[in-house]
Amino acid sequence: MSLVEKFIRSIKYIMWQDLFAPFVFLVVFLPAELYKASLRIRGRELWVIAEGKNDARDNGLVLFEYIRTHHPEVNVYYAINKKSDSYQKVAPFGNIVQYQSLKHWIYYIAASKNISIHKSASPNTLLFYVLHRLGIINGHRVFLQHGVTMNDVKYLHYSETRFELFVCGAAPEYEYVKTHFGFNEDQVAYLGFPRFDKLFAAQNTINARQIVIMPTWRSWLGRETNALSGSQSIEETQYFKAYQSLINNKKFISFIEKNKLDVYFFQHANMEKYADSFTTSSSRIKIVTAETANIQTLLAQSGLMITDYSSVSIDFAFMRKPVLYFQFDEEAFRKHHLAEGYFSYRKDGFGPVVVEEGQLLEKVYEYFNRRLVVEDQYLKRSSAFFRLRDGNNSRRIFDKIMSLERRAE
User: Fold this and answer.
1) Strand locations in 136-206, DSSP E?
2) Do the Cβ atoms of 36 and 109 come closer than 8 Å?
């Protein structure tokens, strides 16, 4: 699909900020180029790290913390909305730039390294997508990822991103991305995720009485500018019905209350707008979002995970803890969201795959009856998947970024 066709398809998602973005770019382009030239003359570089407008809780934050702590000589800044709930997590390390401010625009254009966990982490998603595709904006773009790529994600192919470094978190993922996503071999590297360093350090802090339910989003329901088709409400969808039923299942509630278990139902960022629609009769089940719970803390501390297709199961498998895949809508997910890639949940997954609520709960009971011991077959899969498991991922990524040659101007 051509750039023009892509643009036409995106028209329905254009927001008012996108209409003004070209004018902002024209205003800041010359100052940014002059600043870039002054940096080059002084033999300095500028790095900018971002996770998203309001986010500081993932690979970007951990890498920024590592650089500011171990390499304060590096001129690196973190872009975030200073009014966001996550700001206090990154503020102690200094060098913060207000997200989407004129300074952020100038720094993004002038930076020799733009490092992000999302394809769209820039002052304006639509404009910079075009500018990067056309090669108008130079500078190395490093993709840390948000989760291990398990499927054939078309929008992460080189033709769509122009990333100069695609950081992988697992060995099979590296082989798949290198072969199928259109990158040169030296543009893809298996270095491990920065956040895995935190999980590696916290792997002995497990709360055996805590369950986390963490499904992924559905693109036909969750995109910020999408509306549910026709007059259908979220309460009428298969997604809502499945999880609303689970968190109100009488046998499940009786089990967790009898065993004094705490359950956290964590909404994906793209599904947070529906969080208030979910209710439960149990005080031990908490419905949370990124604003009310720390995802990394939940991952590190929980003893059992219930998910569906989410790559967060990879984090759990990294810590060798039990995972259950509740895939009640697999056909719809594959049709409307992501096609299957190299990873088959049944052949390669780190826990049982179930499609019915009753099956799911039976597996939950089984795991707690045997004290959350993971079966050998899943432990072997985890060992093969994570060949790097030493707490040194941030160091490897930093060294790799330092080795990137400055793009010729």
Assistant:
1) 140-143, 165-168, 188-190
2) yes
Distance CA 85, CA 48 (A): 20
Give dist(CA 174, CA 388) in Å, integer. 12
Q: What is the pLDDT of residues 311-354, one digit of tens each?
A: 889 889 999 999 999 999 988 888 888 777 788 999 999 999 99
Dihedral class, residue 181 (left if φ above 0, else alpha if ψ from -120 to 50, else beta): alpha
- For 86-104, how does the pLDDT look when each residue is reduced to its tens digit (9 = 90+)? 999 999 999 999 999 999 9
What is the C-alpha to C-alpha distance for residues 194 and 68, in angstroms, rounded to an integer?
Answer: 14
Q: Amino acid identity, residue 201?
A: A
Structure confidence at residue 59 (pLDDT): 95
pTM above 0.70, yes or no: yes
Please state the φ and ψ torsions of residue 390, each to the nearest 5 degrees: -135, 0
Distances in whole angstroms, Cα of residue 102 to Cα of each of 25, 32, 79, 81, 225:
9, 10, 12, 13, 25
For residue 217, CA distances in Å to 15, 220, 222, 227, 404 come to 22, 9, 6, 14, 34
| CA distances from residue 357 to 36, 237, 264 in whole angstroms, order as listed | 57, 16, 17
Closest-CA residue to 249 (of 265, 233, 236):
265
- By the 8 A CB rule, do 79 and 99 touch? yes
Map residue 353 onto helix, strand or coil.
strand
Tell me the two tokens of residue 247: 């968190």
Query: What whole-number distance in Å separates Cα of residue 34 and Cα of residue 42?
Result: 12
Does residue 225 have a pLDDT over 70?
Answer: no
Q: Which residues of 28-45 are buried (b: 16+ CB within 10 A; e: fewer)?
A: beeebeebbeebeeeeeb
DSSP letter assigned to residue 340: B
